[in-house]
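Sequence in, structure out. Go.
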Amino acid sequence: MGTRLPVWQAALAGAVVGTLPDLDVFIDKGDAVRDMVLHRAETHALAYQALATPLIAAVAAALSRTRGLYLHWCLLVALGLFTHSLLDAMTVYGTRIGLPFTDQPFAVGSLFIIDPLYTLPLLVGVGAAVFAGRGRRLRWNTAGLVLSTLYAAWSVIAQVTVTQRVMQTSLASTLPASQILVTPAPFNTLLWRIVVVDGDSYYEAFHSLLDPLHEAYDGIHFARFTRGSELESKTRDFAAANLIRDFSQGFYALSDDGHIVRITDLRFGQAPYYAFAFGFAQHQSEPLREITPVRFSRRIPIDIGLAWLQRRITGEPLPPPR
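Output:
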């Protein structure tokens, strides 16, 4: 907005616009599974955002009584919406930026959903721009944006580096890339979580870019877990399970405790702590009876998780919390 609008108003407008795509979380989509898989859909699609931009810009111009700046508002809104969706696509969640032309959820998976090293430069840059003198505002804002963008680019380089190392292991060397997931552990881009899906099993490992520098490093070691493939034939017609199968792009596991059958998206969390597991069938009768999906989540105790994360990032060969 340059000097055409008070800088604090421009920053506030950008913050509001950048939040708009995520307001879909307040829309009840029917059940817990649909609330998950249908998030980051239409409101995150670049084509729909382009169509909405002129209307949102007109509202902003009217509310601020700056109709003469309508084209500037259009640029602010478009950039706020587009960059929100493109940044979301850098995470592993799956963002349908291509709607209505494709329903494919895009997920680079090189950034964790919360990463201070990405966010802080932006916050400092914007904050300094609000309070700095006029001549230095653009300099601070640009510096924050450049640093964050370079960090995002670094995350892709780090992901490729770890992926290459994974592909040299005996487990992954013969498998297609679609069965291998490499995504960062929480809050950083040095420690990476690796998931390999192969038939009835999935394998999990952690690899830090600092591992080769540690005297005790002796390669990438995988832990094996069952995927519950014996439940596939019994649950192939269950709608909620099929939504997770598609949305997870194959990175899922089934389990049965004798009462509830669950499906878990393996991309979010680490064994046995997963954020998105859903009970979708019940053993009240044979065959299984479909139920309204119930979300189960299990989280690592924060003190244990952070202590392990800090030491594991540095290359210390610690087993993950179980």
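Check: Residues 8 and 130 are 6 Å apart (CA to CA). The chain is about 40% helix and 15% strand.
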